[in-house]
Amino acid sequence: MFIKCDDLKPFDHKVYLASPTMHGEELKYMTEAFDTNWMSTVGKNIDEVERIAAEKVGVKYAVGLCNCTSALHLCCKFAGERLYGKPTIGHGALEGKRVFCSDMTFDATLNPVVYEGGIPVFIDTEEESWNMDPVALEKAFELYPDVKLVVCAELYGFPGRIDLIKEICEKQGALLIEDAAEAMGATLNGKQCGSFGDYAAISYNGNKIITGSAGGCLLTKDLEVANKARKWSTQARENAPWYQHEEVGYNYRMSNVIAGVIRGQYNYLEEHIEQKRVIYYRYAEGLKGLPVKMNPITDGTEPNYWLSCLIIDKDYMCKQVRDDSKALYVKEKGKTCPTEILEAIATLNAEGRPIWKPMHMQPMYRMHECVGRDGTIRCRTNAYIAGGVKDVGADIFERGCCLPSDNKMTAEEQDKIIETIKRCFD
Ligand SMILES: *Cc1c(COP(=O)(O)O)cnc(C)c1O
Q: Full-prediction pTM beyond 0.90?
């Protein structure tokens, strides 16, 4: 492949990181809701989404909610009440309790822990999988044997060792909430993401692998949990002729219009995964020979390839400094950094993104602990290297970035992005 300099003009349309792709059936189901006046949080589309979602993941029940964050919130309520009993009014179900959480993830993974009064303790990332490190989790249980809840996300659709995480939880008598928002359709040892947790959540947000513009599902094996999630998500009405309430409720139910979009999209989940797979391997092939690696695929996993990412080898990183809002770098010959690559991609009118900034590096969690695989507790102030042992999340954040992974990107557009990345190493 040879691309001349002047061929790297900016695209005349933006190439997104990941954007919605509609096909047609979505409109049919939405229109059905409209034509039959089921413009509500009840209706056939919701029933169908719940049936399909449960069937695809291989769990008994799915409950349609307005997004994945609300699904995770209800997961936290279920776990908290099961572990610690029903809280009194004014208190969260996880009030004052430590909860082990993924560190390198979107903050929506653990915001609901905080909604319920829980105290996130972060678990460092495993270098080999970019997901929660099972070794670090075991160390964390040695430090805090009383912890009874783990919230774990599968990053970018590339599952790590969620099976081991589940085993560790079982050994410790702890519950597992699985945030499979990014990993719909991905598998580990033939088992679907979303089927490992005691409670799990998936997302139909606009940039996910399939979308309803919004929406999410709570997944469970337990009929009682499913029924209660439906009740809690519709303001927790008791069975009485009037509005009778025994517990706090939420307005979290999925809309039947949005469910129509999701119902239509499910027919294309496999197709979208295949498109994203092709994109991942085109990057892998095109970037061969450069001192970079793609985000890892670990043994036994079949990712959904939601986002293609790269990480620059240490020796080829130029100097890069990030404070709480800006990034600077010093160009060096033959070296680059995520900041330069992201700027170059943006100049091409394409959208990349830094890796999720680890939670233990976030100002709001500056006083929270993060446990590494050596069992040390580190915090934001000693990022990158703590006691001679690597802070894996900080390191991947420093050297990695997400590449444009939109399934409507053409091969030619992707080749230009690849060429642009290559030139960053000039
Ligand atoms: C997108 C995402 C969520 C939140 O999903 P919403 O449906 O937007 O609430 C939660 N966790 C992770 C890891 C995500 O990527």
A: yes
